[in-house]
């Protein structure tokens, strides 16, 4: 799950980025509103964590531009502004959740998972496909009730494929959401991860749509 963090406080931003990365999120971090809009235009993200008090363009301006552009990306506002009017204004402007600083990092991660889950139309926290069960919060996978050991990247890839079951996910989308800025990505890294998942969870789980990407389940007619 690739997250865009927009926070101008360097110490806080560094802590959030490191903390969420430790929980399995790929986090890109920008420090002003214009940089946020540029990133949102050029890249694909799973959710946005947005401060309101930003240089160059404030958070409400970013949020308004995002929604005016028709993007339905889940947005969690993370701010020191605790007034009722601020909360109402942000939510009415298109925010999906509102968290006041100071905050608990575990709660922030749980709220992000909930936003992403709702955005994909799911009510249940765990993802299921046949006898495979993936728990995003615990970052565990079982097959037939037995635990399956996956690397962090394998888990994240499986999470995306199960969340998008029935849809072909292109190589570009998968790579964009797996890797944050600055990470070195080998040209065959995605194929290697898919190979390992097939070996651990069954060769029939992930289908290759040649020249397009990968698919779990049956694509709609």
UniProtKB/TrEMBL annotation:
Subcellular location: Cytoplasm
Any GO BP annotation: regulation of DNA-templated transcription
GO molecular function: phosphorelay response regulator activity; transcription cis-regulatory region binding
One Pfam family recorded for the sequence: Trans_reg_C
Response regulatory domain: residues covered: 2-116
GO cellular component terms given for this protein: cytosol; protein-DNA complex
Residue positions where 4-aspartylphosphate is found in the record: 51
DNA-binding region(s) in UniProt: 124-218
SUPFAM superfamilies: CheY-like
Stored PANTHER family: REGULATOR OF RPOS, TRANSCRIPTIONAL REGULATORY PROTEIN QSEB
Coiled coil feature spans: none
InterPro entries xref list: CheY-like_superfamily (IPR011006), OmpR/PhoB-type_DNA-bd (IPR001867), Sig_transdc_resp-reg_receiver (IPR001789), WalR-like (IPR039420), WH-like_DNA-bd_sf (IPR036388)
Start and end residues of each OmpR/PhoB-type domain: 124-218
Keywords per UniProt: Cytoplasm, DNA-binding, Phosphoprotein, Transcription, Transcription regulation, Two-component regulatory system
Name of this chain's protein: Response regulator
């Amino acid at each position: 799950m690739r997250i865009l963090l927009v926070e101008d406080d360097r110490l806080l931003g560094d802590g959030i980025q490191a903390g969420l990365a430790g929980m399995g999120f790929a986090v890109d971090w920008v420090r002003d509103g214009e940089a946020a809009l540029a990133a949102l235009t050029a890249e694909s993200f799973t959710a946005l964590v947005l401060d309101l008090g930003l240089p160059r363009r404030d958070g409400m301006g970013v949020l308004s531009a995002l929604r005016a552009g028709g993007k339905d990306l889940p947005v969690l506002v993370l701010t020191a502004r605790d007034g009722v009017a601020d909360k109402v204004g942000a939510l009415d402007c298109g925010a999906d959740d509102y968290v006041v600083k100071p905050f608990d990092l575990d709660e922030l991660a749980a709220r992000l998972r909930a936003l992403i889950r709702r955005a994909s139309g799911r009510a249940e926290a765990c993802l299921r496909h046949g006898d495979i069960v993936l728990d995003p919060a615990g970052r565990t996978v079982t097959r037939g009730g037995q635990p399956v050991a996956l690397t962090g990247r394998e888990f994240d890839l499986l999470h995306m494929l199960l969340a998008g079951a029935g849809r072909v996910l292109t190589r570009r989308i998968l790579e964009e959401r797996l890797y944050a800025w600055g990470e070195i990505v080998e040209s065959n890294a995605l194929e290697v991860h898919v190979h390992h998942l097939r070996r651990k969870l069954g060769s029939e789980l992930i289908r290759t749509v040649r020249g397009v990407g990968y698919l779990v389940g049956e694509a709609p007619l």
